[in-house]
What we know:
- By secondary structure, the protein is mostly helical.
- It is built from 14 helices and 4 strands.
- The chain has helices at 2-24, 76-82, 84-90, 94-105, 112-116, 120-124, 143-151, 166-169, 174-177, 195-200, 204-209, 245-250, 265-269, 295-299; strands at 287-288, 293-294, 308-309, 312-313.
- α2 (76-82) crosses α3 (84-90).
- It is flat and about 75 Å long.
- The N and C termini lie far apart (104 Å).
Amino acid sequence: MFLTLVAVAIAALVMAGWRAPVAAQSVSAENPHRLPSTHFGSDGPVAAHGFDVPPGFAGARVANNPLAMDATPIGAATCTACHSREAQNFAHTTHALGMQVAEAADPQTPTCETCHGPGSRHAQDPTAKGLIIAFSHEGGSPIETQTATCLGCHSGGPRDQWTGSVHQRNELSCSDCHNPMARLSAEGLMAKPSINETCATCHTDIRQQFNRRSHMPLPEGQMACVDCHNPHGGFNNALIKTDTVNETCYQCHAEKRGPFLFEHAPVRDNCLNCLTAPTSTRCWSRRCPCCASSATRTCGIPTICSPRSRWGPAPHLTSV
């Protein structure tokens, strides 16, 4: 009896397998696999995956210029009639590519006036300052207007701390570090060919410290200023990217986090008590201010100012 039931079950499975291809042929030939509709290769395009808006700068709006409230948009064609050279340089930038995509999807999308505001008053009197948003300190546009225009799209993320930051308090504009009108750098639309060169425009004293013999590999291009600092704001004037100096250092120097059997209290409190970020060593004139004794005698580690250790001289360091 048991064998008979097994044989019946096997026969049923075989018959189902034979009939499956026949049943599949009855599915609509237009969509045999019952897949959801897409906009690819269709005579009647539909929104794919729920995206109802085109990509790029589709949500771009004409910027607000408080110095020309009665101005009206005039379109990119009018702008490029005079600013042909700027338009040629701008054509290779990230902003230009995004605006081209948005304009192709909706010809009413503003391009130049997304950042510079409505241009009718500027077209009537091109030499008058402030009638168009100019991203420079000499163009007549307030710094607040310039940064507000950029933050209209670039808000959030690393720029959350911009208001009240040391750069904002010193009236820096976005265009002091960035040049959105030309592709001068590989990333970030920087005003100089690299991030480090851009920072060195103002921070020349810090840049000079990297010329010393012992330094972090910033001049060699193995790291950048923004690996440790957030130029758009932070929790202190140093604009470090974490809550403390040590936590920032541990992002790369994880082996120094510890815990250690014999902790060095000054370094545990702050790495900069014994080290400087650009040059890795701090000169104590042969005496450690934390230990109130000879740095060599206390630590046994040769430094720039104490080239001899208790284990013998350091031949790679010059004597003092």
